[in-house]
Amino acid sequence: MGASLFMLEKRHKSFEYGRYGNPTTVVAEEKISALEGAESTLIMASGMCASTVMLMALVPAGGHIVTTTDCYRKTRIFIETILPKMGISATVIDPADVDGLEAVLNKNKVSLFFTESPTNPFLRCVDIEKVSKLCHSKGALVCIDGTFATPLNQKALALGADLVLHSATKFIGGHNDVLAGCISGSEKLVTEIRTLHHILGGTLNPNAAYLIIRGMKTLHLRVRQQNSTAFRMAEVLEAHPRVRCVYYPGLPSHPEHELAKQQMTGFGGVVSFEVDGDLMTTIKFVDALKIPYIAPSFGGCESIVDQPAIMSYWDLSQAERRKYGIEDNLVRFSFGVEDLEDLKADIMQALETI
């Protein structure tokens, strides 16, 4: 009687308890679903919350997942240190290694392929359509973290992925003032994740949801500007004698440039590059910049610069960092909505100091 009454009253839609949602978060979820072309979206307290809850909800105990070499460090730590406690193992492949993915799918009962595209911080791209068809033929799900792409530059679900995830803290929020994460896909899969989310918590408060909604009002304007600025600055940086190499999908030198042109309508607002120098030279360059904030985030109106060796990977030795391709001279630059010429002049003067 109690259960039937519960269903009859549809109490799961009545917001009877804050952890289960509220009208403001529902509006944010519906807007993100519209952007992604998804049946359903779940919004949570952070991007990492979305990633970890998704993995725990969809991968069974003793299951196997596949992920890629280049990814957000905390995601890697969760996969390498927390999932094994649940008997979940992982195979790590290069983002472009489709043959490697096929070999893993043939050898193991894979539950999920989870990757960023573009990846952090080298902006590698995964052939979403190809890996989705391959994984589905073997009964595996595909989840794409599209944070660097945004829903405007890349439609992962339309390309065949089952789920698309974002740290909404970044481009979707867009103002460097709110933490949030979201995951979109079929109602069936999102409901499975939502069920676990209601148990674990990680709820987004209504005011944060409001800030996400506010951010989405200008998403198309911001991303258009950031795409344009990042692309032009990537070309400038690649031609500069004090820059060793540039990582940006919009450049012909990028290993997945042709793929990026096929599956993305813009290449994003983040450019990674290596300056011609060592750790201290790079610190000098970063400190000489006047416009960007020095911070470990990206995607907001304000430009942000990050030197991974002393920020995201500060606790590792140089040898340990190099295992992940993180050199002392690597810089990740998130371009905001400032004037292109102002940003260019600032970066040029900072490069002159080294």
TrEMBL record:
<protein>
    <recommendedName>
        <fullName>plant cystathionine gamma-synthase</fullName>
        <ecNumber>2.5.1.160</ecNumber>
    </recommendedName>
</protein>
<dbReference type="GO" id="GO:0009507">
    <property type="term" value="C:chloroplast"/>
</dbReference>
<comment type="similarity">
    <text>Belongs to the trans-sulfuration enzymes family.</text>
</comment>
<dbReference type="Pfam" id="PF01053">
    <property type="entry name" value="Cys_Met_Meta_PP"/>
</dbReference>
<keyword id="KW-0486">Methionine biosynthesis</keyword>
<dbReference type="GO" id="GO:0003962">
    <property type="term" value="F:cystathionine gamma-synthase activity"/>
</dbReference>
<keyword id="KW-0663">Pyridoxal phosphate</keyword>
<dbReference type="InterPro" id="IPR015421">
    <property type="entry name" value="PyrdxlP-dep_Trfase_major"/>
</dbReference>
<dbReference type="InterPro" id="IPR015424">
    <property type="entry name" value="PyrdxlP-dep_Trfase"/>
</dbReference>
<dbReference type="InterPro" id="IPR044639">
    <property type="entry name" value="CGS1/2"/>
</dbReference>
<dbReference type="GO" id="GO:0019346">
    <property type="term" value="P:transsulfuration"/>
</dbReference>
<dbReference type="InterPro" id="IPR000277">
    <property type="entry name" value="Cys/Met-Metab_PyrdxlP-dep_enz"/>
</dbReference>
<comment type="pathway">
    <text>Amino-acid biosynthesis; L-methionine biosynthesis via de novo pathway; L-cystathionine from O-succinyl-L-homoserine: step 1/1.</text>
</comment>
<dbReference type="GO" id="GO:0009086">
    <property type="term" value="P:methionine biosynthetic process"/>
</dbReference>
<feature type="modified residue" description="N6-(pyridoxal phosphate)lysine">
    <location>
        <position position="170"/>
    </location>
</feature>
<dbReference type="GO" id="GO:0030170">
    <property type="term" value="F:pyridoxal phosphate binding"/>
</dbReference>
<dbReference type="InterPro" id="IPR015422">
    <property type="entry name" value="PyrdxlP-dep_Trfase_small"/>
</dbReference>
<dbReference type="InterPro" id="IPR054542">
    <property type="entry name" value="Cys_met_metab_PP"/>
</dbReference>
<keyword id="KW-0028">Amino-acid biosynthesis</keyword>
